[in-house]
Specification:
With 262 residues, the chain is mainly alpha-helical. The chain has ten helices and no strands.
Length: 262
């Protein structure tokens, strides 16, 4: 079981670092599919993995001089995402408390992820035909970041594809620039989400070895993904992103049905 945690976190983090989706959007549904732990535990472990990967990737990009983060836009987005992360975490706790069967919230998460990922896939396929904008106001950036933070924290995915769509549509970023800005936003939202979990004493039961292996996989995947990203152009990254979205949709639909019947 421990090997599965390591392999999934490593491969997901490679893809996450390349596309800027953090990896959690892959880790969460895949581990849900394997049914190796509870919904809460998987969300927590996924969040820790994404945090480690995004921390490495963002800091490495800045220190190496390869930074493409637009701090005037990215920072207020990240601040909003941090606040949204707190709200999303509380929303998860509230919905979980509403149902006697803990698997119900897993079904809700999977269904939401399937819908969001499908909308993201459709937008990505059609984005050349859809006009984009270039907002710069701090207020609207914080508001957009807030929504991103709520979704990412509630779903336990770190940020995922919805970040990229927002950066494409509202800020006219190209794929590789959006990837770096997305990881910057994810870093803030995941730090806040983890701190909130610790302060509210809602850390689920987990095996320490699983956490260590997933964090190691996240950092290792971030290192590999960053190198691969440099060798790929925007079109190649888009193609990888589309394939990943299609796979995630299928897994999420399956998880929705399975959790609803447990």
């Amino acid at each position: 079981m421990a090997v599965i945690f390591l392999v999934v976190s490593f491969l997901a983090s490679i893809a996450g670092a390349i596309c800027g989706i953090g990896g959690g959007v892959i880790i969460k549904p895949v581990l849900d599919l394997c049914h190796l732990a509870s919904v809460s535990t998987i969300s927590f472990l996924s969040g820790c993995t994404v945090l480690s990967m995004s921390c490495y990737s963002v800091s490495k990009n800045i220190l190496s001089g390869d930074n493409q983060v637009d701090f005037r836009i990215g920072t207020p987005l990240a601040i909003g995402a941090a606040a949204g992360g707190v709200i999303g975490k509380q929303l998860f706790s509230i919905i979980k408390a509403m149902f006697a069967n803990p698997n119900t919230v897993g079904s809700i998460q999977a269904a939401c992820l399937a819908v969001i990922t499908l909308m993201t896939l459709i937008y990505t396929l059609l984005k050349k035909r859809i006009p984009s904008y270039h907002f710069k106001g701090i207020g609207i950036c914080i508001a957009i970041g807030l929504v991103l933070g709520v979704f990412s924290s509630f779903l336990g995915i770190g940020g995922g594809p919805i970040n990229l769509v927002v950066l494409f549509f509202f800020f006219s970023m190209d794929t590789k620039t959006a990837a770096q800005n997305s990881l910057y936003i994810i870093l803030f939202s995941q730090i806040t989400s983890l701190v909130t979990t610790l302060i509210t004493h809602t850390v689920p039961e987990f095996e320490l070895l699983s956490l260590i292996l997933m964090v190691a996989g996240g950092i290792g995947g971030g290192m590999a993904g960053r190198k691969i990203n440099k060798r790929m152009d925007n079109e190649a990254v888009d193609k990888l992103f589309i394939v990943l979205m299609a796979i995630i949709i299928l897994i999420s639909v399956f998880n929705t049905i399975r959790y609803a019947n447990i």
